[in-house]
Amino acid sequence: MNPGLTPTAALLLVIPPLMWAGNAVVGRMVSPLVSPMTLNLLRWAIAFLLLLPIASRVLKPGSPLWGQWRRFAWLSLFSIGGYNALLYLALNSSTAINVTLVGASTPVWMLLIGWLGFRTPVSLRQWLGAVLSIAGVLLVLCRGNWDTLRHLHLVAGDVYVLLASIGWAYYSWLLAHPTPESASLRTDWTGFLMAQIIFGLAWSGVFTGAEWALTPAHIDWGWPLAAALLYIAIGPAIIAYGAWGAGVARAGPAAAGFFTNLTPLFTALLSTLVLGETPQAFHGMAFVLIVSGIVLSSRR
C-alpha cells in the first residue's frame, strides 16, 4: 500500500467511482423519461442551486473567474457541458457496463493527447500499456468476438462515450496546465466547481435548445425522475468532487488515479442488481486488459 494511502484516504477515493457508477446506472434507468441533453441541464442546474450558498463568492465582481472566463468556458465545454451530455446520450443506446468500460480508456487518450498536443514524452512501457488498454476497449466494442472486428458495426453509444473520453482527457491536460490566475481557484473545490458550472450551464442550455428544436425531445415528470435528478446532482457531482479532492490531497494523484478503475466494477455490480444487465465473460476480460494497461503505463 502507498505510504500516503491511509484508511481514510482509501475510503474517500472509493466514494467517487461508486457515485460515478451509480450515475451511469441511473442515467440508463431514466433514459426513457427524459432526453439526454435535458437531463444534463437539469442535473447541473440543481447542483448550482445546492452549491450557491457556500460558493457564491466566486460569482462576485472581483472573483478570479471573470478574468479567466475564456479558460473556464473551455474547461466546462469538455467536462460539464460536453462530457456529461455525451455520457447520457451514450446510455440511450449502450449498456451502463459498456459505457464505463469504454470510458476506462481515458488514461490512454490522456497519454496520446499529452504526446501530440503538449510534447510530453512517452516511454515504451507506456505505449505497451496503451496497446493493452485499447485491446480491452476493442473487446467491448466487438462484444467478445474478435472476428467481428473485420465487420465492426459500432453502436452509437460506443462512439459517443469514446468522444466523451477524448474530451475528458483534453480537459485533464488543461487542468494540469493552469494559468497563475486560475490556479488560485483550485485550492477551493467548491469555488472551482461553481466556476465550471456557470459556463457548463450555458453550454448545456445551448445543447438542450438544439435537442428540443431538432429531435423529438421529451420529459416525463414524476417521482422516479425527481429522485434520479437529486441523486445525480448531489452524489456524482457534489459529493464525488468533494471526496475526490480530499482523497487526492491525502494520497496524491498517482495513487488516487488507480481508484477510477473501480468504476466499471461497481457499474457491473449495480447493473446486475438494478438493471438486470448481467456482465458477460468478455466484460471481465476487457476489465483486466484495460486495468493492466493503465497499471503498466503508470509504473515508474
TrEMBL record:
A cellular component term from Gene Ontology for this protein is: plasma membrane
Q: Which UniProt keywords apply?
A: Cell membrane, Membrane, Transmembrane, Transmembrane helix
Q: Where is the EamA domain?
A: 9-141, 157-298
Q: Which InterPro entries match?
A: AA-Vitamin_Transporters, EamA_dom, EmrE-like
What protein does this entry describe? Answer: EamA family transporter
Organism from which the protein derives = Rhodoferax saidenbachensis
A Pfam family matched in the record? EamA
Spell out the subcellular localization from the entry. Answer: Cell membrane
